[in-house]
């Protein structure tokens, strides 16, 4: 029986995400390439107040990740879920849910509200996680934190 993955913050300087990035590219998800670019240029390293990049690990292998940033698309203090991805062989096991819950844990201290832009296939997931659909610039869903 395989146990639950371990969840912890990680750095793209220390962990190789290429296997997941290549899989995501083949599946049509381009956002990981943006995450890699933004990390390399320093534009987004998930290192601001309240920000984090969390990984799900099975042993040494990264099987999923999720980031939380200050939302760059609005002037008010709002968080943004970014780059939630779970490898194909690890889906439907609750890993995305666990990553999102951990990313949001304690986020209310920094961000009263969280926004995100969901793909059509992930919108139901975010609704189940308490997000509501919004008609806002650069966002499809939002959630107020308690």
Automatic annotation (TrEMBL):
One Pfam entry name: Acetyltransf_10
SUPFAM superfamilies with a match to the protein in the record: Acyl-CoA N-acyltransferases (Nat)
InterPro entries associated with the record: Acyl_CoA_acyltransferase, GNAT_dom
CDD domains: NAT_SF
Residue ranges of domain N-acetyltransferase in the record: 15-146
Molecular function as annotated in GO: acyltransferase activity, transferring groups other than amino-acyl groups
Name of the featured protein: N-acetyltransferase domain-containing protein
Organism: Hoeflea olei
